[in-house]
Amino acid sequence: MSARHRPVSWTPAKRLYDAALLLGVLGYLIAFLHLAPRLSGQEMDGQSLAMRAYGSCAFLLLSAALAIGPLARLAPAALPLLYNRRHLGVLTFLVALAHALEVLGWYFAYSPLPPLVALLSSEPAPGLAWGLPFLPPGILALLILFALAATSHDFFLSYLTPAAWKALHMAIYPAYALATAHIAFGALQDAANPALAALLLACTALVAGLHLAAALQQRAADRARRARGAAPWLRLGRADAVPEGAALVVHPPEGEAVAIFRHQGRLSAVTNLCAHQNGPLGEGRIVDGCITCPWHGFQYRPEDGCAPPPYTEKLATYRLALDGPTLLLDPRPNPPGTRVEPLALPGPVAPAAEAGGFFIGWSATLPPALRRLVGRALAATLLGLPGLGLLLGLAAGDPAGAAFATVPGSPPRPDLPEPATLRGLVIDGPYPLLHLPASGPDGRGRTLLLAGEGKLGAPEEIRALHGRLVAAEGAILRRGDIEMLVLAAPPVPLAESAPLPAAEPLGRWRIQGEICDGKCAAGGMRPGTGIGHRACATLCLDGALPAVFVATRPVAGHAFLLLGDAAGGPALPAFRDLIGHRVTLEGEVTRLGELLVFRAERP
Q1: Half-sphere exposure (CA, 13 Å, Cβ side) for 498?
Q2: 595-601 and 320-323 beta bridge pairing
Q3: Do residues 77 and 369 lie in contact, with contact meaning Cβ atoms separated by under 8 Å?
Q4: For residue 550, what are the contacts with CB-CB under 8 A and spacing of at least 6?
Q5: 98 phi and psi, to 5 degrees?
Q6: How far apart are CA 340 and CA 325, in angstroms?
Q7: What's the gap between Cα 299 and its chain centre?
Q8: Least trusted range by pLDDT, from 151-165, 284-298, 299-313, 563-577
Q9: How far is CA 361 from the centre of its chain?
Q10: Mean pLDDT score of the chain, rounded to an integer?
Q11: How far apart, in Å, are the Cα atoms of 244 and each of 202, 273, 289, 351?
Q12: Which listed residue, 90, 121, 338, 431, has the most CB atoms within 10 A of its CB?
């Protein structure tokens, strides 16, 4: 709003700001999702890559939004960036929402539970040994960002009152802390490359450093205020020290800060807090005879603190007096809108302060000095965001890492047909398996894990076919020495028979590794080796998918073992709270065809 009754609309500066922001985010996502995989040759599935791209982009945008506030206090030339920060906040929420939808649509879909229920129930209670869970902080951060984006319009500012609206939007700080915890206890635990840790530390250090610098600046002003002491009237120094067209900000020992403006050789005092969003009026200028807030261009008459008609906002005013050349202030505020006759200064009217660098939000043009700064900021957005996206995309790698690679020296196995129609023996223990007799290169035969569609194990009725020769159809998943048949239909029993393979004892082992679900490990996804994929693996194993133990070192030439409990039953529920963590288990290992079965004891 302005004294010219000019409506605040989509100015050229605002359009340029939004266009650069959107193009920068789009460039970041393209570099992360498309350019980086081509350059690095990584094999991460598209969904996991998209989760990382959206999540890291949202954190960068959130860090930028928090950095702009103290930056504008330390360097007023950054005020144009602060003016459009609401748009940045809404875009941050939308990118974070895209991250959450990717997670729900991939990790928590295709399961017996609805995605939202699975999200809230699949992560086991970690206990002190495992640190804090990472899903609840992420959910809470997203909800806060939604509340802030939904109430960002001035309608809610007016409806809630500026004080309540400002208090609500201070929740951006808890949201940032929660987002940091979500990354630290989630993706950071799974990151083999230090790039993500470096990003997290750099962003948090930048935000904390800027806020600390702004706080120290304010602390120095508060110390000077306390040194003046309390008095009915405050002695402020020479009255002619107030620059023409600008303000001197005074901090009384009690109450709010006061902005004393000089216009046409006369002094007027109003509260330093703008009625719109508590912006610092003392950092503004006199434009069209009105005090103009540097944040959003709201205007008020100096003599009574009232916005020009038809606007109705009002500010508290203060009385001024002269004692010779010394300016005096009565720190007791008058009711908002109270007219106080401006205090005329003796002598000629001084020239107005240089306002060439002052930003007015509703102006159609930017001052030359600010135009250069905004140009540099836009260039950094258009070039910096895609550059960061490329670097982080290159560092994303394959979360499965070398743990799922074929152990050196392992004999090659011929490929199975795709789609597969296989004849084999059903073996029940600890999960339904399909053994292909004498089909391996060493004559032991190949043993495949069986699973159903989605995050479900093989149908329970298959256990009744133990020892029977069947014909089974489905899709083959394979990574390293893991093989799984995802059944397209129930196996059909055959009239022929074949002997069950003998289990070869390999002794008692103490093995370090991680509990994963067999479907992801076999190639359904790219599971990580840390806490980041714990909830997804828990949901899969709750659906009776086979549990595998991914060893940190090969065991009898194998990188993984089918995991069961000490009694030979399924791994869950005995090991549910250990899923997705680096653990050491001890138990008996047997070889079944080419498959190793680990009957582990609860540590």
Answers
A1: 20
A2: unpaired
A3: yes
A4: 403, 404, 513, 514, 515, 516, 521, 529, 559, 560
A5: -60, -40
A6: 20
A7: 37
A8: 151-165
A9: 29
A10: 81
A11: 42, 20, 12, 6
A12: 431
Residue that the structure tokens 């990354």 belong to: 183
- Could you please report the per-residue DSSP string of 28-92? HHHIIIIIHHHHH-----HHHHHHHHHHHHHHHHHHHHHHHHHHHHH-GGGHHHHHTHHHHHHHH
For residue 489, the SS3 value is coil
Coil, helix or strand at residue 193: coil
Q: How confident is the model at residue 5 (pLDDT cuts 50, 70, 90)?
A: very low
What is the distance in angstroms between the CA of the first residue and the CA of the last residue of the chain? Answer: 68
> Taking Cα atoms as reference points, which of 393, 370, 596 lies closest to residue 483?
596
How many angstroms separate the most distant Cα atoms in the chain? 116
Q: What amino acid is encoded at 168 in this protein?
A: L
Which residues lie closer than 8 Å to 159 by C-beta, 6 or more apart? none
Indicate the SS3 state at residue 481: coil
Tokens of 250: 């005074």
Instruction: Find all residues with CB under 8 Å of 46, minimum gap 6, and list them.
Output: 33
The pLDDT, as a whole number, for residue 250 is 87
SS3 504: strand
**Mean local confidence (pLDDT), 168-185:** 91
Q: Where are the beta strands (DSSP E) in 502-574?
A: 504-517, 547-555, 558-565
> Which distant-in-sequence residues (6+ apart) come within 8 Å of 536 by Cβ?
107, 108, 122, 517, 520, 525, 527
Q: Which residues pair with 425 in a beta bridge?
A: 435, 469
pTM: 0.68
Number of residues assigned to the chain? 603
Q: What is the pLDDT of residues 516-554, one digit of tens each?
A: 888 887 777 655 544 546 777 887 888 889 999 988 888
Token reading at 265: 């050789």
Round to whole Å and give the CA distance between 441 and 594. Answer: 10
**Residue 43: count of CB within 10 angstroms of its CB:** 12
Q: What's the CA gap between 61 and 85, in Å, rounded?
A: 10
User: Which residue is associated with the tokens 């008020």?
Assistant: 300
Query: Beta strands 343-344 and 290-292: pairing type?
Result: unpaired
CA distances (Å), origin 438, targets 347, 386, 444: 109, 53, 5
For the record, the structure tokens of 334 come out as: 């008058």
Q: Is the pLDDT of residue 357 over 80?
A: no
Its sign, for the CA torsion 299, 305, 310, 311, is positive
Residue 440 neighbours by CB distance under 10 Å: 16
Cα–Cα distance measured from residue 530 to residue 302, given in angstroms and rounded to the nearest whole number: 61
Distance (Å, rounded) from C-alpha 211 to C-alpha 213?
5
Q: What is the pLDDT of residue 363?
A: 65
Place of tokens 């506030």: 69
Short-list 287, 271, 274, 414, CA closest to 329: 271
